[in-house]
Recover the amino acids of this structure.
């Protein structure tokens, strides 16, 4: 049950079931990307040319806007801002109009008689300029009753494909903002009053009217649903009387009575159909609105939740209020009915550390709100089903006297047993969800760091690791499905067995089986099937939703972050701290299996033991304690309103923490913080939104041109903007993926300056930019534009210190000193010593540095990609436009194991359906005693048939689910492997949210919903065909009525699907936008909070949710539009059958008449159910198609293995670049132009050049992340383009610019595949200076060495192989993460090592250590080092200076220094490097080498000795 769309086992269900194919809850994509997408689209109407032309004209405009909403979190999906965003292109306005006018000229001129379909006659509706409000808002009663207000949209959708402008904006009465406000107010009030379940009652209060309107409609339809079969009794009695009268020659009853009854039954059916439709419509609406409000509430809460709640630390006594609320909540939740009290876990949750990580919050938003949405749809069945059962029982008693009780007793006994079984499903589903979460979060982690995974050649291993989870998940799902199918088979056959029992009892108690009673009762028992089937499903859904609500409520009640700073806008200082102490939170406890190294070993018990220090770990007896969270202690300082203060200290000393404390990100444990003004925050990791450059800088402020220009220049961004295809309107990829590190950082600074706050916090913003650019920014931005603000700058750039007003020197979370530069130089020896490592440069004049802002754009620039197309970088998601092609069905069947699985399943279906018909025919023969058997024979055969039918049904279901889940497993494996093998350009142009959406939502649909949908579709189709065959066999005229009605039916569904499919696709794409925005904002919470922009982002998310709902609610309405119309057709069938029975009352036996009538009533419901199920199947297949697209259609990198490479290769590590040219994607300019160089084995090469000169590109070509366009690269004589990627990448090591750590342990990060011994790992950690020299296997001493790389508060914080690493390694400082990356390269032991700015985020001392390690640890190996800090490479063998993709200079550092007008010499001058420094560095290198080789000799001697 716990999936989500099982409720459909019966008719008017329809959870999210959108009868049209696009995917239910996913991002609808399918066919290949945009280009083919147009051709496909056109096939919809016969007017290709205009479409082509139109798409061309609209070019990027349309692509960027409607179909790939992804491409545009900028404006929340509304179209209007598009216009302003493209002001720079005057053409846009004219484009819009020309597109609108020239749209369908040819089609209009075509004479009507050439178009065979009359509904396509007439003008094609033009595309509206503005979106209209949903007409339901103004519609009258009758229009609302039959959903006539949907007609204009259906008509438009039938005549041409819908465009985004056609989708009406959301009905103002259902807009998310007012509803959320009401709900929030009610929720707060109830929490205050100490209500139980405040969230549930707040929802009830908010949607009261809509909710109970649906309830009333359902009550009416439930009563009528029971009454129609009962009225049948009189109609059958009428035909029996006539039949008997005819055979006995008596006067027959008047025909008027019969016709009256036929009309009566039809009228009841019509009312019942309207009731059901409105019940579902209002239920779905309540669900959709509740979901919207919950998403909004969850988002708002995620903006203010405290760090402690996020980390899952116990709320300490310092917030009694939060404590009380939580306790209350927990108590309540435990009392919750029918759920495994989520409070149970939650109570210890608060203290046991499964906090509210971003993954869990996203889960609340995507999964939990969806479950609530699903449950609201059919909620009322919970109370109406028992009610209709009672009424049915009464009517059965009237019909069959007390014999009915026998049948009913079976139902009464059966239902509780089924409900128990369903409960067990619920528990199993919880376990499955856990595995799924782990699989999804692992997938997400891999996708986020895909570049890294490729560098290391780890793809296959990650696929295997996912496979482990996947197999467990599929096995669990198969067991769950088998149990559920058994339940289904039993519940489907319960009415059969019940009626069997009742009839057997009835006949045994010496009653004659009269057709009137029997078939009216059969119809009644059949009418029970609906409520009985629905009840367990709905109970399952509601239990799911209840636990989801409990989770959401627990989240909403969790502790909020109080801004601990007091505001004194009129105080003398900008910032004051008095005796303040702060702490980070404990690491949330991890599900170790979810982590990256642990998939292989089950570590369930670790969680229990995490806390107990006596657990001995694998590395001999090192105690595995969690590292203590980092703390800042006794911080005291005051900063004036226009002061520039630098914060310095070694790696892990607490610089970033101090800024985080000021930004309100760290929890204050004592003391006070006073802020005198607003603040802007520039974190170390720039948070970049997937929107235009301009939006990223404005960050919600109004545009002020002059100020904006100044900011751009001060941050030397002008040069970069000039290179972007659309200047500052160019869109940046997710997480800033399409711009270089330096550009991200400068955007980050520009945003902080533009924001114009009075306190600016900057966390090492200059580390990622080149020295001269750093200087330019420091002079023009930090000292210039920000001159009159309070600026706090954490930095490793010691050259800025003498230009700062004061310096705060941090050490181990405490302040060493706060003083001016001169005083520190005078008074502190330690400070002088620290500075001596960097030659301090004299103040340089600003202008020199300003020369040409940081030039060329580095890394794949989105550049010319879509010169014409308004700078959208993200590829619009493929939206399939036709229905799913047959090839996808074939792929699906093949993926299930064999193409023969399909016929087997179909055969089982036919046999089980046959058994069903024969069972009922037998009953009809029994009532008319056709064969004259004895009572015992009739009863025996009847019972046997029932059992056979139940068994066959079960077999059919099980075979379907097993084949389905196998197919799902195969397809996902293909897709993941293929995606990991996709070239980097795919990841640069595809938003991560879209990939994750496919791997979570679409897979969920394949696993849990598709097989269900197919089962029910096949079932209903088979039943309908069987019934029609049966009717036609006895009433030939029925065929005449059936043909036109069938045509109408096919037509109505086609008419409906034309627009429904499009609406659904829009909804899917819009949903992706909501997911993308949500995820993006979550990752930038620190930034959003520090800027105080929570409200703006909440408004954004609400706008996006409204956009999604505008399409989402239409999907419900168009389903109901169709249902009402199909029910009309069905009711015509009932009427026809009724009249046929009345008119042929003399010729056809009443037994058969009764059988047919009881069947036709059940068929009516089946008909529209079938259409809906077809849509569900298509939806599901859409998911298959999208996964299959990823599994087969993505372009791939070169193969992993080609020729055999000798295991020892490369022995020397000699690299030759021969005339190499490279561009990132087709159609982009060359990034490397004719690059040739020869690097000898064991040589150390430093690569320098301004940003965008092509430094990182050399690396990409070496690892073949991007294939070169011409030329060759040879390593030790082998052309690397001839060998497999895996063979190549596993032989190289890289220390990347942004060190990636995976969730897991230190061990799993250094050696994910357990290829090395603990000794090797410890040695790497020691060399990388992450642990002290006396720490390691066998040593339990505390790290107490000089190592500054270990977090302060030494004891518990020492790093162990089993220390937990959080997502992205966030529990380590950036410097420590870089040291880990270094350790990883050491463990790998490759002959060729590439360093990409590996020391950009560490202080001088650590930098020296890293350099020393690189010198000794990588001695004799070829080293390519891309550096920002010249100092780090001036001792290398040669320096290669890159400029505009070419080698400008290459020689030894001394030779280059001597070229007075050379680029390198200029760089040295700017960094104050003198010839003595170069000589000194060279000698030091030599000394280190000698030392290292001396050590090796000594070791060798000892060994041989």
């Amino acid at each position: 049950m716990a999936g989500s769309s099982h409720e459909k086992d019966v008719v008017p269900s329809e959870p999210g079931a959108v009868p049209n194919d696009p995917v239910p809850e996913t991002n609808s994509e399918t066919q290949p990307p945009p280009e083919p997408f147009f051709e496909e689209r056109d096939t919809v109407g016969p007017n290709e040319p205009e479409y082509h032309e139109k798409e061309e004209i609209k070019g990027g405009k349309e692509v960027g806007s409607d179909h790939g909403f992804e491409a545009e979190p900028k404006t929340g999906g509304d179209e209007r801002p598009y216009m302003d965003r493209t002001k720079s292109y005057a053409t846009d306005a004219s484009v819009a109009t020309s597109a609108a006018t020239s749209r369908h000229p040819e089609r209009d001129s075509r004479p009507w008689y050439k178009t065979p379909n009359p509904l396509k006659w007439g003008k094609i509706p033009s595309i509206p300029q503005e979106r209209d409000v949903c007409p339901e808002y103004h519609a009258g009663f009758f229009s609302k009753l039959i959903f006539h207000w949907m007609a204009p949209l259906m008509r438009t959708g039938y005549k041409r494909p819908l465009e985004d402008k056609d989708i009406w904006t959301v009905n103002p009465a259902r807009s998310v903002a007012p509803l959320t406000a009401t709900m929030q107010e009610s929720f707060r009030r109830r929490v205050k009053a100490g209500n139980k379940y405040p969230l549930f009652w707040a929802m009830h209060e908010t949607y009261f009217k809509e909710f109970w309107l649906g309830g009333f409609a359902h009550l009416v339809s439930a009563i009528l649903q029971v009454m129609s079969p009962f009225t049948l009794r009189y109609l059958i009695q009428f035909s029996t009387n006539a039949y008997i009268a005819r055979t006995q020659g008596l006067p027959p009853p008047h025909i008027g009575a019969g016709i009256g009854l036929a009309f009566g039954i039809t009228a009841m059916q019509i009312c019942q159909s309207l009731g059901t439709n409105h019940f579902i419509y209002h239920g779905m609406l309540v669900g959709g609105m509740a979901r919207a409000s919950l998403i909004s509430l969850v988002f708002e809460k995620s903006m203010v939740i405290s760090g402690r709640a996020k980390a899952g630390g116990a709320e300490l006594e310092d917030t009694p209020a939060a404590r009380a609320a939580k306790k209350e909540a927990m108590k309540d939740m435990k009392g919750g009915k029918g759920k495994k009290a989520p409070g149970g876990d939650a109570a210890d949750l608060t203290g046991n550390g499964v906090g509210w990580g971003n993954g869990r919050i996203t889960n609340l938003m995507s999964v939990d709100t969806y479950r609530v949405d699903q449950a609201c749809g059919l909620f009322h069945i919970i109370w109406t089903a028992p009610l209709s059962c009672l009424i049915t029982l009464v009517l059965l008693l009237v019909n069959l006297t007390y014999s009915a009780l026998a049948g009913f007793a079976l139902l009464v006994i059966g239902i509780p047993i089924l409900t128990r079984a369903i409960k067990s499903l619920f528990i199993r589903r919880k376990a499955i969800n856990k595995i799924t979460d782990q699989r999804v979060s692992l997938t997400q982690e891999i996708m986020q760091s895909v570049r890294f995974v490729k560098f290391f050649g780890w793809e296959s291993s990650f696929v295997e690791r996912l496979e482990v989870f996947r197999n467990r998940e599929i096995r669990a799902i198969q067991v769950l499905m088998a149990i559920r199918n058994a339940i289904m088979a039993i519940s489907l056959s319960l009415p059969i067995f019940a009626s069997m029992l009742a009839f057997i009892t009835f006949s045994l108690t010496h009653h004659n089986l009269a057709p009137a009673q029997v078939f009216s009762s059969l119809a009644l028992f059949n009418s029970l099937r609906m409520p009985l089937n629905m009840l367990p499903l709905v109970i399952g859904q509601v239990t799911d939703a209840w636990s989801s609500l409990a989770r959401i409520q627990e989240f909403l009640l969790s502790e909020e972050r109080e801004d601990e700073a007091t505001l004194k806008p009129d105080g003398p200082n900008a910032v004051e701290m008095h005796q303040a102490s702060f702490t980070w939170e404990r690491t949330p406890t991890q599900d170790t299996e979810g982590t990256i190294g642990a998939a292989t070993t089950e570590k369930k018990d670790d969680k229990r033991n995490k806390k107990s220090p006596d657990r001995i770990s694998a590395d001999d007896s090192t105690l595995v304690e969690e590292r203590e969270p980092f703390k800042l202690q006794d911080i005291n300082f005051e900063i004036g309103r226009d002061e520039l203060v630098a914060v310095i200290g070694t790696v892990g000393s607490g610089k970033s923490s101090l800024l985080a404390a000021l930004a309100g990100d760290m929890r204050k444990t004592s003391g006070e913080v006073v802020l005198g003004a607003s603040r802007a925050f520039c974190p170390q990791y720039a948070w970049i939104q997937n929107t235009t450059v301009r939006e990223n800088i404005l960050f919600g402020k109004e545009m002020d041109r002059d100020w904006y220009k100044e900011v751009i220049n001060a941050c030397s961004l002008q040069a970069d903007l000039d290179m972007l295809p659309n200047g500052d309107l160019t869109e940046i990829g997710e997480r800033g993926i399409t711009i270089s590190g330096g550009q991200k950082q400068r955007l980050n600074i520009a945003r902080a300056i533009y924001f114009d706050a009075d306190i600016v916090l900057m966390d090492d913003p200059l580390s990622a930019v080149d020295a001269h650019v750093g200087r330019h920014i420091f002079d023009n931005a930090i000292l210039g534009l920000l001159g009159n603000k309070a600026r706090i700058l954490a930095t490793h750039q010691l050259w800025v210190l003498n230009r700062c007003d004061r310096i705060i020197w941090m050490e181990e979370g405490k302040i060493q000193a706060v003083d001016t530069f001169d005083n520190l130089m005078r008074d502190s020896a330690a400070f002088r010593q620290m500075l001596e490592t960097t030659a301090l440069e004299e103040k340089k004049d600003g202008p020199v540095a300003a020369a040409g802002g940081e030039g060329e754009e580095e890394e794949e620039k989105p550049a010319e990609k879509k010169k014409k197309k308004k700078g959208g970088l993200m590829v619009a998601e493929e939206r399939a436009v036709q229905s799913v092609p047959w090839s996808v069905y074939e792929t699906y069947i093949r993926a299930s194991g064999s193409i023969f699985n399909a016929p087997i399943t179909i055969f089982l279906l036919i046999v089980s359906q046959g058994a069903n018909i024969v069972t009922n025919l037998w009953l009809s023969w029994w009532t008319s005693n056709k064969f004259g058997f004895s009572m015992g024979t009739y009863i025996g055969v009847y019972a046997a048939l029932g059992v056979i039918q139940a068994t066959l049904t079960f077999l059919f279901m099980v075979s379907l689910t097993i084949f389905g889940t196998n197919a799902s497993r195969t397809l996902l494996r293909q897709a993941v492997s293929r995606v990991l093998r996709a070239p980097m350009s795919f990841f640069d142009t595809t938003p991560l949210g879209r990939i994750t959406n496919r791997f979570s939502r679409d897979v969920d649909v394949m696993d849990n919903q598709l097989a269900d949908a197919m089962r029910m579709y096949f079932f209903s189709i088979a039943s309908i065909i069987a019934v029609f065959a049966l009717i036609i066999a006895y009433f030939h005229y029925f065929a005449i009525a059936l043909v036109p009605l069938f045509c109408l039916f096919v037509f109505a569904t086609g008419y409906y699907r034309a627009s429904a499919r499009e609406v659904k696709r829009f909804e899917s794409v819009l949903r992706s936008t909501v997911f993308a925005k949500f995820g993006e904002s979550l990752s930038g919470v620190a930034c959003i909070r520090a800027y105080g922009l929570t409200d703006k982002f909440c408004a954004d998310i609400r706008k996006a949710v409204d956009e999604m709902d505008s399409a989402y609610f239409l999907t419900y309405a168009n389903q109901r539009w169709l249902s009402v119309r199909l029910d009309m057709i069905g009711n015509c069938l009932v009427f026809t059958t009724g009249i046929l029975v009345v008119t042929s009352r003399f010729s056809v036996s009443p037994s058969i008449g009764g059988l047919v009538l009881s069947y036709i009533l059940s068929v009516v419901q089946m008909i529209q159910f079938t259409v809906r199920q077809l849509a569900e199947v298509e939806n599901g297949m859409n998911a298959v198609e999208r996964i299959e697209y990823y599994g087969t259609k993505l372009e791939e990198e070169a193969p992993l293995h080609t020729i055999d490479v000798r295991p020892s290769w490369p022995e020397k590590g000699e690299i030759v670049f021969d005339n190499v040219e490279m561009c990132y994607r087709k159609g982009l300019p060359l990034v490397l132009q004719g690059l040739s160089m020869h690097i000898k084995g064991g040589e150390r090469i430093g690569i320098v050049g301004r940003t965008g000169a092509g430094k990182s590109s050399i690396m990409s070509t070496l690892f073949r992340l991007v294939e070169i366009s011409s030329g060759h690269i040879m390593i030790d004589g082998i052309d690397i383009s001839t060998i497999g990627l895996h063979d190549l990448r596993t032989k190289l090591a890289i220390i990347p610019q942004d060190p990636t750590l995976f969730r897991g342990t230190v061990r799993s990060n250094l050696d994910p595949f357990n290829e090395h011994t603990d000794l090797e790992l410890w040695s790497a950690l020691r060399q990388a200076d992450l642990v002290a020299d006396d720490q390691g296997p066998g040593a339990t001493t505390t790290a107490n060495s000089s190592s500054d790389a270990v977090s302060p508060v030494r004891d518990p914080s020492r790093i162990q192989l089993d220390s937990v690493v959080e997502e992205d390694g966030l529990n380590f400082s950036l410097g420590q993460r870089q040291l880990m990356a270094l350790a990883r390269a050491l463990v790998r032991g490759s002959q060729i090592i590439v360093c990409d700015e590996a020391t950009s985020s560490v202080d001088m001392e650590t930098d020296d250590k890293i350099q020393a390690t690189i010198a000794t640890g990588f001695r004799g190996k070829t080293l390519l080092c891309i550096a920002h800090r010249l100092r780090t490479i001036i001792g290398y063998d040669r320096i290669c200076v890159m400029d505009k993709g070419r080698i400008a200079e290459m020689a030894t550092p001394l030779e280059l220094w001597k070229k007075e007008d050379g680029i390198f010499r200029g760089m040295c001058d700017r960094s104050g490097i003198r010839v003595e420094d170069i000589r000194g560095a060279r000698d030091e290198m030599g000394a280190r080498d000698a030392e290292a080789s001396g050590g090796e000799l000594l070791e060798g001697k000892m060994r041989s000795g």
